[in-house]
Write a structure and sequence with these properties.
A hairpin with a 2-residue loop joins strand 1 and strand 2. Strands 1-2 form a two-stranded antiparallel ribbon. The chain is elongated, with a radius of gyration of 22 Å. By secondary structure, it is mostly helical. The protein starts with a helix and ends with a strand. About 4% of the residues have low confidence.
Length: 132
């Protein structure tokens, strides 16, 4: 095999790897959007449940125990430290949540959603702070 043939083989392998990386990026974007949509639906359902339970006549049923969602824990942390900026991993450590990469990535998407909703700001890349 001469140098020209070797370069052609390497270019073909590079093109295949580039195409595969593009496919994987597309899958990541799709899954991230699906996760954000599902989390938004969960938040909406939680809000609806709370509104209905508050509107229900007193004494009809015992109130269900309060459940703390991840969003509530994140919002509470920022409310307790309004001037402090956190990275997602620092927030996990503060809240005693698992710090493995998959869990931290989910929190990053939650922080992005809270930023888009106007609750948080991003004073620098990767850091989030309560909007004042």
């Amino acid at each position: 095999m001469n140098v020209t043939e070797l370069l052609a083989v390497l270019q073909a392998q590079h093109d295949e790897a580039t195409a595969r990386a593009g496919e994987l990026h597309g899958q990541i974007e799709h899954l991230t959007a699906a996760l954000a949509g599902t989390e938004a639906r969960l938040a909406d359902l939680d809000t609806a449940r709370k509104v209905i339970s508050e509107a229900a006549p007193a004494g009809t049923e015992p109130d269900p125990p309060e459940t703390s969602t991840a969003y509530q824990a994140i919002v509470n942390a920022f409310n307790q430290h309004p001037g402090q900026a956190f990275r997602a991993r620092e927030l996990h450590e503060l809240l005693g949540m698992p710090t493995h990469e998959a869990s931290v990535n989910i929190t990053r998407s939650r922080l992005g959603r809270l930023t888009r909703q106007g609750f948080l700001t991003q004073p620098e890349r990767g850091r989030y702070q309560k909007r004042t």
